[in-house]
Structures
1.
Amino acid sequence: MRALRILLIVVVVLGGLFVIADRVAVHFAENEAADKVRTTENLATTPDVSIKGFPFLTQAASGELDDVQIGIKDYEADTGTGTGTSGTSGPKSIRIDDLKADMKGVRFSGDYSSATAATATGTATIAYDELLKAAKSEPTQLFPGIKAQVVGLSDGGNGKIKVDVKVTAAGATQTYPVLSSVTVDGDTVKVHADNLPKLVVDLADSRIRSITDFQQAIHQLPGGVKLNSVQAGQNGVEITVKGSNVRLAG
């Protein structure tokens, strides 16, 4: 019995040491991975990296991690140019907030210089003040003496964006709220007015839509993930992303 008790104590001690070693190793790996992602994506700040699953050491020995979660607070995505229906130039980049990605089946090289996830899904937000940069926020002439501009974007409820359009005619101004749908088409976020109010008598639909409707391309997201869906939310347009063979580093 005494020998059995000693054996159990040894097993418990060794198990505890293994857990400690495993947690130390995963913490080190998370820090290293965060630094590599920051370098690869040229981020201004170091992202949060969390390696899930236990034990970590056996996963590391196999060369593949089951589940890695990455959080990037602010990401500047390349856009080319955003355009309205009349081809207005937009910003060269757009800020993506609170990008959270869940990577499955992450394989890494023997020297840990590169890592690729089999699949990835995630969420993020494009703040309304960022998306406004793609709209016609400067006064634009519709007809002689009549100008219009988008002066604000906000949550319109039920997944819609409220686009505030200010119309100036004969020295008087009036702001009209226009409920709009937001959709994704490839790598482009599109905002399209659902029902146009009678902003100015006899204005052509296409002239009004040159102000109310606009789009923003997002050509590059971390690791090559792609836009999947978009929906208007309280603080901005909420997006989901997905990808396969997503490069995390190297």
2.
Amino acid sequence: MSFEIGLITFGELTADPATGRLPEPRQHLRGVIELAELADQAGLDVIGVGEHHRSDFVATAPPMVLAAMAEHTRRIRLTSAVTVLSSDDPVRVWEQFATLDLLSGGRAEIIAGRGSYTESFPLFGYDLADYAELFREKLDLLLRIRETNPLTWPGGRFRPPLNQADIAPRALQEKLPIWVGVGGTPTSAVETGARGLPMMLGVLLGTVGGHSGIVNLYRRAAEQAGRDPATLRVGLSVQGHVGRTSAEARRTMYPHFTAGFRDNNHQRGRGFVLSREKFDAFTGPQGALVVGSAQEVIDKIAAYHEAYGISRLLLHVGFGGMPQAQLLDSVERLATEVAPVLRKELAVPAGSCPRPAGNGFPANVG
């Protein structure tokens, strides 16, 4: 199993900290496609597009953005990050991503999640009180669709039955990858492990080892359900930036990162200002953010691998409206200076399962 390095973008529209001007949506979307082109040409493994249904995000329809990326790339894998499955229809999700798989020559993936941004629930007529149950039912159906066609399904609380339903097209891949995106909720990790599905762990702030209990719960639940440990995959998404030097990376990222937290974090008007002192702490050796020179970034990702046994890292780049030239420079460094070293050092032997070094549980997880 090779170690995979990739990117995530949300396509957020954040005012420039220096000028106060918002990006023009069409130009920003073209920039997202350019990002995918460079990532593909430079040799990164995966690119993901987040789903947010607000006017300060341009990627409200990730399958369409990913389809455009498919036509401008050759080898990079294309995934949602995440598909808010709780407020979507699993049949439609399958149709979109199976179509993407055909268009891309078998490069599509889905990261299904409950959603940390919740505006899609009222928008599409769902009750937030059903947040968890919606996801369980819809994930069950999505997995059934992947396995069987035509499909007979008995129905559930939120969707009527399907009777010999022909759900097309079928994916080009024999088994289109479906990951589950998990934050810091123990129940989510346990349910994902019990299903034997790969888990994408989203880390926002905090420390490198702060989610070790979540990963251990995931692996323990998988083993208790009789899953083969060698088939388990854990990925991690975290925000970051690769600079020429440590100081340059922090200087470049900070004003945009804190602007994104102020303007785009969770619900409009509820963001917060992250002080430079706290930002520097979060980018230090034990901090969660992956920021610095190429060597610093290598060391931080290796530390995450040691803590969690990850086989994939997706770096959330450009958050807060970083200028395109600086963003592309960071991605170029990630692909050419960071990724080759990590692939060599962190490759997982066939048939083995990467495991975290520690087995401690944070107080709110144990």
3.
Amino acid sequence: MVIELDMESEVPIYVQLRNQIVKGIGKGELKAQEKLPTVRQLAAEAGVNTMTVNKAYQILKAEGYIKIDRRHGAVVADVVDMDLQFREKLEAELELLSAEASITGMEKAEFLKLCDGIYSKMKVCRQY
């Protein structure tokens, strides 16, 4: 998986790293139990401070996307559970995106088609 960071973006680098890793997992570019680069390796590859990568990894760990072991490093988690906090976050983000789409004149059917097209690109499908 190639990490692409926008150093000019207002989005903090650690958030960009987090988002790209989540997308990589969702698209199947990163598989369950796949080992991630060490903090030092990813920092060197991305040209950022190790603390930035560490912060991204800690957030991913807290959210359940990765597991970190001192001896084995960071690996993609087998299962990520949707808890109430995640569901509330998802609903809030979807509400904002829906509002923005509506304000700009996008029809509901077009918005849903766009969502469906993006979701279809995700390779990780789990039954709950």
4.
Amino acid sequence: MYTATFIFAAGQYDEEFYQLDEQIAEVARSIPGYLGEESWENKETGRVSNVYYWENLAALQSLIKHPKHIEAKAKQEKWLSGYQVVIAEVQRVYGDGAFVHPADSFVNP
């Protein structure tokens, strides 16, 4: 399993941002191997973190190569005050099972 964490400093959003953001979300959810996502906001820094969970690297790369994702990346300076992406391979998942999580389908090697 892989995660792609998109961390960004919020800027000024417009209608185009919201439309493109929703289109990318729809594309991600339609890709075989997409497992789910979560979002977090740090009120102190103003940064937002979106974590996408993927069954495999090929599924993640399908989103990265999609024209809508490429379009958003090219226009990010219009809406964001900086960003960073962290791609990680998950080695282990554990917990008490008290809530459903996208990583629940990961089978530890």
